[in-house]
Amino acid sequence: MISAEGFLGTVVLMSLLILSVSFLLTVLRVLKGPTLPDRILALDMLVAIGVGFLAVTGIGSGVTFNVDIAIALGLVGFLATVAFARFVLSRSKAASEVLTEKKHD
Amino acid sequence: MAATDPGALGAVLSGPVASGDWLVIAPVVIAIAAGALLLMLRHHLRWQAAYASGCLLLMLAANAALLVRVLSDGPLVMTMGRWLPPFGISFAADALGASFAVVATFVALICALSSARDIDTTGRRYGFYPFLMLMMAGVNGAFLTGDIFNLYVWFEVFLIASFGLLILGSEPAQIDGATKYGILNLLATALFLIATAYLYGAFGTLNMADIAVKAAGLRGSAPLMTIATLYLLAFGMKAAAFPVNFWLPAAYHTPRLVTAALFGGLLTKIGVYALLRSLVMIFPVERAALSEVIEWVAILTMICGVMGALAQTDVRRMFGFLVISGVGIMLAGLALGSPLGVSGTILYAVHSMLVMSALYLLAGAMREMGGSFLLTELGGIYRKSTFLTAVALLIFLAAAGLPPGSGLWPKVMLAKAAIDGGGWLLAGAILATGFMTSIALGRVFVLAFWRDAQKAGPVDSTIKSVPRLAIYAPLVSLTIPIVVLGIIPEQFIRIAELASAGLIDVTAYVRAVFPAGGS
Amino acid sequence: MRSLIFRTAAPYLTALMLLFSVFVLLRGHNEPGGGFIGGLIAASAFAIHGIAYGVPTVRRALHFHPMAISGFGLLLAAFSGLVSCAFGVPFLTGLWISPAILGVTVDLSTVMLFDIGVYFVVVGSITSIALALEDREEG
Amino acid sequence: MGTGAHSLTFLALLLPFLGALAAPLLCRALKHNAAWPLAAVPLFIFLHLVGFLEPIAQGRPVAGGFDWIPSLGVRFSWYLDGLSLTFALLITGIGTLIVLYSGGYLKGHAHQGRFFSFILLFMGAMLGLVVSDSFIMLFMFWELTSITSFLLIGFDHDREAARRAALQALVLTGMGGLSLLAGLLVIASITGVTELSSLLSSGPLVRQSPLYLAALLLVLGGAFTKSAQFPFHFWLPNAMEAPTPVSAYLHSATMVKAGVYLLMRLNPVLGDTVAWETLLPMFGGVTLLVGATLAIRQTGLKMMLAYTTVASLGLLVMLTGFGSERAIEAAVLYLVAHSLFKGSLFMVAGSIGHEAGTRDIRRLGGLSRAMPITFAAGLLAAFSMGGLPLFFGFVAKEEIYAGLAVGETWPMLLGGVAIVGNALMFAIAFTVGLKPFIGTTGNMPKNPHEGSLLLWSGPLVLAVSGLGAGLFSGTVHAFGSSPMASAVVGATVEVTASSVPHAGLPLYLSIATIVLGVAAYLSQDRLRQSMANILAAIGWGPDRGFDQVMRGLLRLSFAVTRVVQNGRLDIYLTVTFVIVAIALFVPMVAYGELPAMPEVPRLLLHEWTIVVIAVIGLGAVLYAQDRLTAIVSLGIQGFAVALLFMLFGAPDLSFTQFMVETLSVVILALVMTRLKLSPSDHRPAREKALDLTVATACGAGFGLLLLKVTQLPFDDTLSQFYQAHSLALAHGRNIVNVIIVDFRGLDTLGEIAVVMVAGLAILALIRVRSVPAADPQAVMEKR
Amino acid sequence: MIDALQNYLAAALILVGSTFSLTASVGLLRLPDLYTRMHAASKAGTLGSCVVLLALAVHADDPAISLRALAGIVFFLLTVPISSHLLAKAAHRAGYALWEHSERDELQTALEQEASSASVADLRNSSQP
Amino acid sequence: MSRYLNNILLALVWAALTGSFTLANFVLGLLLGRLALYLVREQLETRQGTYRGGKIVSLAVLFIKELVLSGWRVATLVTSPKMQIRPGIFAYPLSVDRDFEITLLANLITLTPGTLSVDVSEDRTTLFIHAIDCSDVEKNIREIRYGFERKIEEAFR
Amino acid sequence: MEAVFSLLVALFFGVGIYLILSRHVIRIVLGIAIFGNAVNLLIFTSGRIMRETAPIIPGNLDLLPGPAANPLPQALILTAIVISFSFFAFILVLAYRAYQEIGVDDTIGMRISEPRDDALPPMGY
Ligand code: NA
Ligand code: NA
């Protein structure tokens, strides 16, 4: 039987892999869009996965300060999404542009 | 290297510093504090000019005292945070840095004084004086620091401040010029940082004295040639050397004239300073290997600069190109690398700081008297003001390297150094550049001063009428040292020679930074 | 941005983020963080507040112009370096005192003062940029 | 030499400059009568110099000076031997008369004071030039004469012709000055000597140097432009745009002689070589002929004189380069004679123009009654210029022919040239000095009468001096000609020529000259016409060539500048990065600084994933079809970099990178709201390929260099130090932060200064508006 | 013993959390429109991160760290719904339509009513003076 | 919400962040919280409300339960081979009327299974909710009405 | 590991430079951002790479327990990041203002300070 630490280590590596896959899938959504809010949502999701990633690496390395980075990341991720939402909203005033945007996508 | 035992503090921390040593950091601290305070008092428009001028005067005094001290006692070093070099950041003033700092601060002081008439309320409210002070913090820091990464930081400080000064006014031409200036200069400092990253990767240290000492040991294994070439490119860009001089003519004619004067006087010279510091002091062997390249760069810079000047209708743009041709002349000394050549470059830089600022201030005066910046429209200034004409003539003579102006001596030194070193082409280019400069400026004199006024009726209504003293006082204050340097240059040349000797033989510099015997 | 939900939550979020920013600032010497990151978080807080309630609200709340705050920060940082002048040590030397406040020994230092200066500079500048950009948006 | 005289000489050299400063003030107070006190300046110097005649005649040159720029080995030093003393006496003596004459000539002129200033400045420069011992001083004063003559020629700056002439003079003599400087530097480089007095005793060092020819050509470049040798002669006649006193002074007695002075001065050093004895006579001879024939073509008195000056300068150069003692003696004598008669004739011509309102020979006549004293002066000067016996001009001409008539082909040819030239000059001499005064009264705009004492004293004194010097040639030889010739030759020479004719080949040649000259005088109208026809047929001259060259230079500069500074940021950037690529690869390859092949790196799978995500982010930014996708993709790569920092032990970096990347994207989004940018990249494929190549090269270069650097052993002393002392001495556990705020706190201070200024600059950028409510569309339309 | 328990619990939570994240990203890819994707992102995603943070809280020896991790969870739960709401609202306002097979859009209906009454009001206002 | 309560809450958050519940640190937290609240003073709701601790805990428990369920359901939904969904936006008539309560409700709804608050009407009477399963609107409304909304009313009235 | 990072640095530089070269103001701005990241990675790599161990002394120790990542490049990068962020923001706003004032988003159209139709200088005297 492997030790608890060893088990945890394996799990950490495994979950890092899982999170990496999530990363890749989310990046795919960023690239695919098709609309701007989709991309923003995916970026937001990327941040969320990033928080998880930070937490997992924190557990893996025994380095505890990752929590704060995770919190900060959550907060700025929030800011980014809010700003983008703001952007989407203000763009709606120029409705024509939305259409051209969609046409390009 | 210092012991790593935390108990042996003597080996880790420097001893107490004499209050006189603070001179080396004083200019920068004064400038930063003054800039910060001016920013906080941004809306108290009335006292800004006086306050900024007072602080610049204080900085000038500190720099002058520093220079005196450096000249008598050799390089002055303070390592911040009481750490021993190379662990802390050293400020190390030698004759080169201190003398450049003095002249640059003097130029800035004059510009601050003349800004009283050139900078409007909006300009003040949106930070002309904080920009000015922070730019001087950057400039002084660049001249005085002994740490290459710290040099980068000061480069960025004066660069961002120069951005601020450049866009103050937001005219389309300014914005356009600033875009080109901004992106290209950003690249130049990025290249500087990149080269420094490689340097750090190879040397593991950032203290310039330390690097200079270690370079000898690494020659052969580390890619020092490539790193030195990168520095040449980065600083060459900052100095506006051909063919990476684009940013200068794109921008220098767009801001307020005080700003242009400041830029024309200082910015490229910092590039030249950094070239001297990096290539002559740190990479002498690599500089010698690159000397032929530098020689061609110098020649092309001179020629393209002065041809650009000849091609212009707008005097401000012409002066911008003259700044470039001056840079070419300064690069000549770098290409030669001989003591005479390097001291010629140093003296030329001092001359250029004074004269190029004076030229831009003169352009402002010309516009006020002649109603335009364009050679096609200017005229009748001689008739309006004999005094301004006389001052202009002196400045033009200095810029063309003719007696009794300041340009003569460095040009003679450089031409002599070139001929002594067999650089015929270089000598020819230096002289030809002087000649073509005299044509360009002779044309300005003929067309703008001698020729009759070209425009009938009232001139451009946007031109404020200002008391003549406000025009003359800054110009005269710049012209006096220009003529003094032209007539009794001995002290200046001696300082330039000391500075060049200190660069070429780094022993004194290194000993000042590492008094205990070094790393 | 006109959303009841956002506007109701924004002040609390802002206050929380400000608190967090100070926390990040103060712990920077021993763990990741410091004045710069703290300042960025605080500026983000003001940005969120600005997006929710508009720029004038934030300007009123701050009382001083953000750039004045930034200038104050720089002055503070420079001053923290100058303290060493009085002790005959070079510029920017870290000087420490440990007074007891409320029965707890608190380490105070010029280094911390310096970091606080950094914090203010960043808060001021970034907030100023964000507000100026937002201002344009409204107009 | 006592210190008293020493400092007095220095004062004498300084005095004209002080006088120049005082002139405007004096003029304001005394009007034109300021000429009297101002004339005292050159007079004083003249008298002071006269005191040196005796010792110098005895072969004891006067030298003095003091250290000026010791670090460059430059002394402010003067050296007076026969050559320089004679020049100095001419400069100050004629200068005195010119100052007086100017008082009369420019009486009532609004800027007379300024004029006096310029004249005195010029005098000071000229005096300095001829007495300078050190090379640099010589060059400095040389350039000062160019500058002051620029001011004098352009004195009537309202006229375009005057401005053009001034600029022309500046350009040509300025170019010559630089050539001279180069020549002097080369000589200094050869000999290690920077003073003329030492150079003169340096022996054949320069002649034997491989650099001799370079030095010679450079010096000649200076001398020929200054002394208006063909093909640089044209600036001199154009300089007649200046007021007559200037012409009289600059172009006959002083400025143009500077070149001759230089040649004479350096004859002992550079002379006695084939090059010297070919180039000088050749250029001099051509100049003599060109000057003389062009003089005949002129109708204006001043222009005639100007061209004869060109001719005379040619003659002097020819003689100086001839290579015999006799020819040098002739040159010396002719130089003195020329200064006297030409100065006088110029002033006569000026007086005529001043009184009659015209200087056109076709309109002048019968002035003898109205202007008897001027007539006398003109006639006397013409006699001297014509080379009639008893006059000093005769002495000179005799010596010329004596010098040239040595019976070989080359001298014979030059002798012929001299005869033709002299004959034509003879004709001009009387055309100016005689013709306007005799015959029927011409059709003149003004009613002429004799001018004031100020106007006629100068020409008369000079003309009489020409006669006096001829009559007392022995004394002149003893104190002037012989010491001067000795100085030029570099050995003691005794000049013996006399103004009394005695039989011999020279006399016959003189007579032939006079006969030819009389013939030319009588048929001058026809000659003038035919010359005019010939010149019209040629249609081009160096004078027009000057304009063409200037315009060509401007056009060329314009064209070059359009290419190298074409105003397009994309080209600037491309060039910059091409150079970056070159700067990376050339030294790396040339100096063998390429890295070794790296071993296959061992990364963990999730690390690879992050790397891949970074790469995907980069690719996404590149291929993004619209800018918003690009911005979001930018976020991806920034995010990946932050995670990389996290994974490789840099939590602070990761922290900051997260924050900064997010804020960057936020700011981008905020700004984007207002930008309506075209999303697609419509560069032509060729350009894309170029950009791709450049970008790839730069990227590869940076990467290879980085690999090379990281393959070196690393000196981690600094990091060890920080790790060891962070907690113990700086009381911080986060070493990165301790470095930021303590070990390298100054960097951070600068960094936050950048942040602050950036904030302020952005504020200014957004808030300050040039035009209210700038609408891009409106701006577009405005353009 | 406690340590081992902590480790196992943490390991389980980590696995659960990362699996949630994975499903969220799968959902993000598979769901048909923005609004449905938001369900995946704002729930499974948040949950994933929170659970992993919880794992950190469980694993940490220092209670301070655990507390901070919990604070992080709270922060997360506070911010995520708001940003989701804002994005959904903005997207809807900006005219990004629902998936074509959606059942209904009562917000759209309400907005259209509002718009028509507003235009009536506009007419009234303009006719008044 | 009371300003003092806010301040104390912030001080508690501070203590949690710093991981130190000493008096000095708590006082510092109070001071910093005061400062932070001062900066947002104008936007804080001033209306006084009551708080029932027990009900708040009950609300929290309900929320955590719903959250986990929500995650699970979405997880199974998106991983099922055939996604059978019938999404849509429906209008939810609010019975709570205070901003704080509306916000809390909306956020809780967003975090729970299959629902997402899109907008609140201008007159604050209607909440527009996007549901992933919109086949039975009445059921959805009922679940919220008797779930979160009632708990909120109980906790804060 | 340095090899991978060198490759990554090369890629970052290449993409950044390609974008900077591509005439469109916004692409240039994006390029500058990527270029900045490239420089940061360059500094990071030049200080040599070390996996996972941060240079932070744990609370219960007086010295680092073992080898840790090189802290100095990290500090340098922090300074550089802050600076490049400031410049990025400035350039971005500058581009925005350029678009407002000049009305073009393409460097070819940015010809106010150096106009396309510059005239020859006056030829007379
Ligand atoms: Na400059
Ligand atoms: Na930090």
List keywords for this structure.
heteroheptamer, B: about 525 residues, mainly alpha, two-stranded antiparallel ribbon, 21 helices, 2 strands, globular, disordered N terminus, C: about 140 residues, two-stranded antiparallel sheet, 5 helices, 4 strands, about 70% helix, about 5% strand, elongated, binds sodium ion
Please give a structural write-up.
- The structure holds seven protein chains of seven kinds.
- With 783 residues, chain D is an all-alpha fold.
- Chain D contains 33 helices and two strands.
- A two-stranded antiparallel ribbon of chain D has the order 1-2.
- Chain E is an all-alpha fold.
- Helices cover 84% and strands 0% of the residues of chain E.
- The longest helix of chain E is centred in the middle third of the chain and has 31 residues, at 63-93.
- The N and C termini of chain E lie far apart (84 Å).
- Chain F folds into two domains: 3-39, no CATH class; 82-156, 2-Layer Sandwich (Alpha-Beta Plaits).
- Chain F has helices at residues 3-18, 23-39, 53-79, 99-111, 137-156; strands spanning 88-93, 115-120, 126-131.
- Chain F has a three-stranded antiparallel sheet with strand order 1-3-2.
- Chain G has 125 residues and is an all-alpha fold.
- Chain G is 58% helix and 0% strand.
- Chain G has helices at 2-20, 25-46, 71-102.
- The structure holds sodium ion (2 copies).
Number of strands of chain D: 2
**Given the helix and strand composition of chain D, which structural class is it?**
mainly alpha
Order of helices and strands of chain G: HHH
**In percent terms, what proportion of residues of chain G is strand?**
under 5%
Residue-averaged pLDDT of chain D: 89
Q: Number of helix segments of chain D?
A: 33
User: Helix count of chain G, per DSSP?
Assistant: 3
Broad shape of chain D: elongated
What fraction, in percent, of the residue positions of chain G are helical?
A: 55-70%
Helix content of chain D: over 70%
Q: Determine the structural class of chain G based on helices, strands and strand pairing.
A: mainly alpha
The largest pleated sheet of chain G is described as: none
Give the chain pair forming the largest contact, with residue counts: B-D, 132 and 106 residues
CATH class of chain G: Mainly Alpha
Low-confidence stretches of chain D: 772-783
* Gyration radius of chain D, rounded: 38 Å
Low-confidence segments of chain G, given as residue ranges, are none
Bound molecules: sodium ion
Give Rg of chain G in angstroms. Answer: 22 Å
- Any idea how many domains of chain G? 1
The total count of strands of chain G amounts to 0
